[in-house]
Design a protein that fits this description.
It is a single chain. By secondary structure, this protein is α/β, with parallel strands linked by helices. It has 2 domains: 162 residues, 3-Layer(aba) Sandwich (Rossmann fold); 279 residues, tm_1862 like domain (pyruvate-formate lyase- activating enzyme), CATH 3.80.30. The chain contains 15 helices and 19 strands. A 7-stranded mixed β-sheet has the order 4-1-5-6-7-8-9, with helices on both faces. Strands 10-13-14-15-16-17 form a 6-stranded parallel β-sheet. Strands 2-3 form a two-stranded antiparallel sheet. It is globular and about 60 Å long. The chain starts with a strand and ends in a 24-residue tail after the last helix.
Length: 482
Amino acid sequence: MADITFINLNMLFVRYSDAYDKELHLPLGLLYLTSVLENADYEVDLRDYQTCDSDDPFDMDTFVEFCSDPAPIIGLSCMANLLQFTILAAKRLKERYPDTTIVLGGVGAKAVEKKVLERFSWIDIVAQGEAENSIIPLIEALKNSEDLTGVPGVFFRTADGTVMCNEPPARIEDLDTIPRPAYHRVDLNAYDAYGMVSSRGCPYKCTFCSVAPIWNHKCYFRSPEDVVAEMKELHEAVGVELFLFQDEFFVSSKQAVMRFCDALEKSGLDVKWKAFARVDLADDEMMGAMAKTGCLEIRFGIETGSQAMLERTSKGFTPEMAVDVVSRATQIFPRVDTFFIWAYPDESMDDFYKSLFQMISFRLMGARILPSLLCLLPQTQMYMDLGEDRLRNLEFCEELLPEYVITGHEVCEVGSVSIQPRHAPIFDFIKEHKDLFPGFFLLDVDENIRPKLQILQEHGFYTRADRELRDLDSCGAHSPRV
């Protein structure tokens, strides 16, 4: 029997009418952990729920059957968009296999770990931090029925039911020391997207960002040579030709990017790749080197065209800098994506119109515009700064959900969603626990959101003329489409 069953629930499913549009991304997090455990002679049962062949993957009976005969320890990994499904699915697993220990991992429960354990008795442990340095102590403690107080990075209950939290494990500073993901444990040809990680973390403190706080605003890197070597291995193994750099801080400096491009060029590897960048860290020489070595898409988080909102969100650059860099990038790369967030708290109509003007300008330059309705996840500084009175006024809107938390249950149209009766219980559960799932709730729908949505639609955004339904990939993850 395996020591642990890992189940990946990090999924990008979008439902249009009764059909799903799926992007299957390699479950890198669990593949890293599987490699660490296998190197230490542990037996891992790895299951990726993305690959479940079902007309309705959110049917609980289908999920339980997919998880049949698990190991004594079950590790579930999810993002914020499917935390609610994961919690409810874990309940069904516990009913079926009451003697198992269920560990909730991934980034989905960030900042609400303690509340999850206090409310849902079937979740036994919630993990935090980089698990490469904590997964083995956790398994050993559970196998030997030992106290968990010595296991770093876990929330757990004591014998009297008190929820305790251990300090997260020390960050891994040299990412080259982490073993390669256990690619041999999955059918690489079954996936649409091949993510690549060159760093972990981001030092910037953008107040709306839910990613940088997970890493405590500290960033560590892999060497360019190690990254290129992994790319070459995947290319030679299964012919991967497009790599998606998922890390927020790929462009950490001009020097770092130039070193990577030099290593990639010297390798002779003929592949394509995509990456995120910051406008204040990009110049023509660097972008030229990226394009020369196969970067066909660069993505900039612009977020707003208003100087006041840029300062309020701590972005660290000006609208003029964004216009300058994006205009030059469109002359260098086949595709330039620009992300914007709209409906911030206290965003005036003047601020909004400045963003709209910049979006239209970038569109005329040839850049693709990816607007996203603000998502207030609990680890973001913007959420924490709202205060109790405004948090109480967050509203659940049946027709609007931020792109970041599209679950796959709702039916998506352009600029709206609808909830089918058979999936209503999922959203009822979300509404019952607003403080666990604030990303699904909106601030001032009638005054701050609906008027701005209407204006966006009048100018060609969130309409069929703007983009086909299949192009709704603005949740922050790279699309493998070229």
